[in-house]
Amino acid sequence: MKQYHIALDETQIARYVILPGDPGRCEAIARYLDGPAFVARNREYTTWEGYLGGERVLVTSTGIGGPSAAIALEDLAALGADTFIRAGTCGGIALEVCGGDVVIASGAVRHEGTSREYAPLEYPAVPGFAVLNALARAAGELALNHHIGVVHCKDSFYGQHSPARMPVADELLYKWEAWRRLGVLASEMESAALFTAAAALGVRAGACFSVVWNKDRRAQGLPDDERHDPADAVRLAVRAMELLIESGG
User: pTM score, two decimals?
Assistant: First the structure.
């Protein structure tokens, strides 16, 4: 049965799926695979396919934020997909995280709403262990300047980037300082929803991000490149998926 949102059916599914946010990135990511081909497009959900080690792999965009990412995960899992890696971008929080680095999420702050409809707030948003291990191993193989740790996941892009103009500015600024003091590496918008929904569905998910910039470094007058190309996160996701396929996992 064709899924309403992603416009795929059982004949088009694969176990392994790479999840960018931007539909425009799907074709470029699929070019890292063997035999890339367009599959379907509906709303923010564009899907391409290719092969790694002879195994079919999908590249499906999720749009921006947890609600649409969870919809993609639900529809893909309903058809039989069970292993997901998000490849996207983030903004640095910890001062050691610079523009152009790569962050691998070992957990996510659930500062968003989608995951609350899957699990109580006491439940942690964490990636699948095998997926996390594959990402860590791939980052070492590729010699990427990378960081592994907790990320902050939110719903409002401008709540992070312009907190002082929000009616709840005091709360946003207070919590941002808490994340910083707790060693949270970076901020993005999908991981907590994906990790929590994946746990509820009995599938596994991981996430890696190319760092665009770090506004906290800039606020302290520290050097910080601005990088909008997610190529390193994409290469990392593809190699990690290949490792998972090679292991039979």
Answer: 0.97
